[in-house]
Task: structure prediction
Amino acid sequence: MSEKNGTPDTPAGSTGPRPEPLRFFGTTWVDHDNGYTVRRIAVSVGSLATAAVSCLVLRFAYDGIQIAAIGGLVTTLLVVMFAVCSALAFRHTWETFSKRPDPDRHASLRGLLAIGFVGSLLAYFFRSLIEAPGEKLHREEYETARQQHDSRSTRRTGNPAKKRRRT
Result:
């Protein structure tokens, strides 16, 4: 295990698949080692604390709008916009934990995700209570890659020149 990045060292000459590192977890999600549980707790607490601080900042922004007295309709529209964007960001972020996002769709939703950042933080919090966010998706992909590699390497074993020919 490499101490610098938390990824397993590949043995010399190994051609097998390597697990993809997750943000904040590296590849500790593979065997749930090297502080995996502590990292999950830290990510849960950190994302919840960040969401709480973000809500406090939004509250200050709301107070500023109230002081500016721009009108009830605009204030209501602003609150609804943040609520809807947060809900959509939560849903989108939650879906990315179980399937790879479409890059074009993700790019088109970038503004919405920025506005609804509280929803993304909450999705990260709730998912980290269950597993490392994205672990299930990465584990499925890694297991599939390992199975494909193992099946290919078992088919290629032996020297074909030394095989007996059927007569």
